[in-house]
Amino acid sequence: MPITRAATQAVLRLGAVALAGSLLAACGSGSSGTTAGKADGKVTVTVDLFGSFGYKEAGLYAEYEKLHPNVTIKQTDTEDEADYWKSLQTRLAGGGGLADVQGIEVGRIASVTQQQADRFEDLRKYGADGLKSQFADAKWAAATGKDGEVLGLGTDVGPEAMCYRTDLFQQAGLPTDRAELAKRWSTWDGYLELGKQYKAKAPAKSAWLDSVGSLFSIMIGQEKERYYDASGALIWETNPALKTAWETSVEASGAGLSAKLDQWSPQWNQAFAAGSFATIPCPAWMLGYIKGQAGETGKGKWDIAALPGGAGNWGGSYLAVPRAAKNKKEAYELIKWLTAPEQQAKIFAKQGNFPSSTGAIAEVAGTTDPYFSGAPIGQIFGDAAKAAPVQVLGVHDQNINQQITNALSEVERKGLAPEKAWENAKKGVANTLG
C-alpha cells in the first residue's frame, strides 16, 4: 500500500474505476464542516484513494462503522497514482468533486505543503497537533506546512525488500533460502549476476524481474538525495547515485532480464499469477498488491529476502481533508482512527503496509506472513525502516520519477538507445516543470 503504497504506490495499489470515483466524490463536495444538515444525524464520509491502502480489505471500515453507527464510509479508487493525482489536481482547481478524505502519495506531499496548503484543512483545528508523538519525526515533518500547518496524517512508509518466487527459483536450479539469497545478492551487481544464471535455465515465458523501471525506483529509494538536494535545488541530472540506478537498469534491460511489463498495466497485474517474473523489488505496501493479483494459488510460492545494496524507502502515503470537503470533522475523526497505532498494526498484519506510527512499528516486530512462506516481514521491513535514509522530498519528485521510468520503458520495450531515452527523460522533465 502501500506501492502505492501504489499499488503507486501504488500503489500502486488495487483500484476501481476513476470515473465512478469522481461521481461518488462529487456527492461530497461543498464547504461545510458539519453533517451537512442531515436531520437524522447520519453521515456518509467519502474516501478517494489510489491503489490499495487496505482499509476495506482489512475490515477497518466495517469496524469503524460498527463503532460509529451514524457513519457510512464510501471508498473509491484509481489504480494508477499518476492518473489519480492528475484528476485530483483538476478537482482541487475547480473546488468540486472532492471526497471528504483524499490520499496523498509521499512523492506529492511536498507539492501539498509548499504549493497547495490553502486547499487542504489545517488539521490542528481538530486537535491533530496532539498526535505528533505517535509518528516518526520524518513522517510528521513531511506533511507540515511552512507555518506549522498539519496537512495530512501519515499512513504507511515504504521500507524495501525483494520478493521472489521460490517455485521458479527451484525450476531454474537456484537456492531459495532467504538468508543465502541475501548474501548472494548483497550488491546490485550480485543481483544481476544471479539473474543471468536464472535466465540460462529459466522456465518458459519467465524473466528475472518485472521491469527495469521498478529496478530504478527501488534503487533510487536507497538514496537520501534523489531529485533535489537539501537546499531545494534540482540535482537529478547530475546526481551520481541516480546515474548508477539508471545504468544498472539499462544493463538489466540489455541482458534480457526483464519481462518488459509496465507497472500497474493489466498485463503486469496478470503476470503475478502467470509466473512471468521471478523477482520483484517490493516495498512493504506491495505485499497486499501481490496477494490481490496472485490470488490463493500464489500462497506459499512467494518469499521475501533483504534488498540488494542496503536499506531504502519507496512510497508511503498520507490522508488529507480538502478545504472543500463536505464532512470535515467526521473526515478528521476517521483518518485519526485509521492512522492510529492499533489500526496501522492491523493493516500491516493483514495487508503488509508498514506503519509510520512508532508504537505500531514496535508492535509488529514479530509478524510473519504465511502467504510469503512464513517470511519474518516484521523483522525484514522493520530493519529496513530503521536503516533507510531520511529522504529529501521535492515538489516534483513523482513527476521526475515517472519521466525516467517512462524513458527506461522505451529502452526495454522499444529498443531505444539509452542515450536517446535519457534525452527524452530530460525533455519530459522540462515539460513537466514548465
Automatic annotation (TrEMBL):
This is Extracellular solute-binding protein. Transmembrane segments: none annotated. It comes from the Bacteria. Keywords: Signal. It comes from Streptomyces omiyaensis. Gene3D superfamilies: Periplasmic binding protein-like II (3.40.190.10). InterPro entries: Bact_solute-bd_prot1, SBP. Residues 1-25 form the signal peptide. The lineage of its organism: Bacteria, Bacillati, Actinomycetota, Actinomycetes, Kitasatosporales.
